[in-house]
Amino acid sequence: MNNLFFRRAINYPTGPGCARPVPLPIHQRSRRHAMPVNLFSLALLWLWSHPLCADTLRLQLKWTHSFQFAGYYAALEQGYYRELGLDVEFLEASPNTPVADRVMAGEAEFGVGTSSLLLERHRGKPLVVLANIFQHSAQVLVARQQSPLQGVHDLAGKTLMLEDGADELVAYLTQEGLTPDKYRTITHSANHEDLLNGRVDAMSAYSSYELYHFRQAHQPLQIYTPRSAGIDFYGDNLFTSSKLIRRNPRLVDNFRDASLRGWQYAMANPEDIIALIMLRYTSQHSADFLRAEAEHMQALIRPDLIEIGYSNPGRWRHIADTYADLGLLPQGFSLDGFLYQQGLGDNRTWFYAALTTLLGALVIFAIALHVYRVNSKLHNLVRLMRRADVQQRNHNHVLALIAADEPLEDILLSLVEGVEHLKPEMKCSVLLFDRKQQKFSVAAAPSLPDFYNQAIAHLQAHDTAGSCGAAVATGKRVIVSNIQTHPNWEAYRQLAAQADLMSCWSEPILNRHGEALGTFAIYQHKVAEPTAEDIQLIEESAYLAEIAIERKQALEALRESEERHRMMAQHDNLTGLPNRALFADRLQQALSYAKRHHKSLAVMLLDLDDFKPVNDTYGHALGDELLKAVALRLQEAVRASDTVARIGGDEFVILLHQIDSPAQARIVSDKIGQLLAQEFWLGEQSIHIGCSIGIAYYPQDSSDARELTHIADQRMYEQKQLHHPS
């Protein structure tokens, strides 16, 4: 489209913070007699588009120079800022730099911050988010790995090194039950050696930054990410103050547009930016580090799926509600004014006054209107082309997730987010339907209120049950343009009104047999009928959901079949206990671990006393029930980490891991003897049996698995001779 606009160099006033004029369509210079009007309109449009000039604009980064801020470097290097008359300077930060305070104090016009900007706004700082660069926050907690079973609750009572703005990590810990009074915090030093040498037990870090250095140190790590607890916040948000927006909205628009253009270039040309960073910004990082950082950021920014800078109000609502649930924000905290809406801050009253003064309102208005109509057509054409491209990219991304066997929840969430990104006025959901239990479950509905999702999960599959219940019951698409007047929604009108939902279109997700797997639904906050384009969108979305669900069901059936065969090969069919082969494998693994870590273990061989008379008297069916009951009591007598196996007939073998002494094994043996001596009630029969137990110890008796089992067997028969000398 560049050929539609002037390329002639014109000496417009420029300077730091001053934007260039808006170029005029070429058709306005096609008639010689229109030139005077064009010159006037050009001057007028320059006045309208030219922001108040400022000094050098300062962007306060939230860390030191790295690929984390590649888009801003690209915008400067590629001349995107310069094209709009902006002179930009980047300010580095330490872990404890109060970025929000710097912007509020006028030490920087723009900043890069975390989701903590919500908390800062609640504290009375009128900050405004301009764009979300990271769709997923990179903030994590890192601890040294002490054991394979280590968990986040092990941080209780420990020392944590947290940087400024790590509120989402605090929220994550609080949600896990670790309130701030349950751990100690110290100021972040930006030195990962503090964790390696044990000065701190855990530290806040960026998954795209510090983890590289830890891996280079070959230190086993335990990484705790808020996303594991459902806290998936935006990261590296570009923001400014509401004061600057009111004073100079055009400047803010220009800075945002140039920055996002820089990010698009940086993510498409990482090697160019890596060379630029090493040449002009820092020699601290190697090319390998920057390359690893850039690669990791692809998964955080998702430029393949989501337009860089996109901000979903529904997701910010969820972030605010999460903070509120944890007591960090008041419930229902208002987002009004927090999310930037480009162009709404521009007051053009003086423009119309200037229009009247210079040329006369009617002439210039007619010309401007013509320009506007032509440009609107062009913008609509571009918008439609971009929408088709984005929709295709969304579909390709969902298919890639399906092919990669990603979790079904992630696939359906990506499908929903793709549609909502394409059409922000729509709120989508995927409900799964369990035909056996005749119940719905919410698989993906990120923009619908939690109370609505919880209520809709109890929906019934009936032809008068809202849109989704009717779609499953009839197997047909159900279009409800006005929820408040449609009979299907009579029982749910109040619920929908509370969620501010006015229309709902639901497409059944059907398998190849025509059976309902669930629904794909689109809601809007207004009364609305679907267009042909909307119908195509909902049909394609339901079809993609069908592919994902059927593939998952097929894979689950295959895994269950494999698990059954594995179970049959490694477990006793009667009791469900491990069989001889699986026990031998576990004993070998336990011996290897004990040898490496200088631990002890015990092998116990057990044979039931008086079992044969039970079989002879009451039959094998009751004998089988007795063996199953014995298996349950044996499992009650040992720890979850120990192994109880049946190796044939009435013989069982037990592996005790990591015992402190032989006396500990004898305590377990006595406990088993007491449990099995207690009366068994099987149906109406009272059964009494006993047992003989032999024990072998590692390392006292042997270090060989077969020999240990043989020794335990000998000792078991010695004890049995004592019980039954004959």
TrEMBL record:
Domain of life of the native organism: Bacteria
Alphabetically ordered keywords of this record: Membrane, Transmembrane, Transmembrane helix
Record-linked Pfam families: GAF_2, GGDEF, NMT1
InterPro entries: DGC-Regulatory_Protein, GAF, GAF-like_dom_sf, GGDEF_dom, Nucleotide_cyclase, Rev_trsase/Diguanyl_cyclase, SsuA/THI5
Membrane spanning stretches: 350-372
Molecular functions per Gene Ontology: catalytic activity
Cofactor(s) annotated in UniProt: Mg(2+)
SMART domains documented for this protein: GAF, GGDEF
Domain GGDEF residue range list: 599-726
Keyword Transmembrane among record annotations: yes
Transmembrane keyword on record: yes
Protein name, per record: Diguanylate cyclase (GGDEF) domain protein
Organism: Cellvibrio japonicus (strain Ueda107) (Pseudomonas fluorescens subsp. cellulosa)
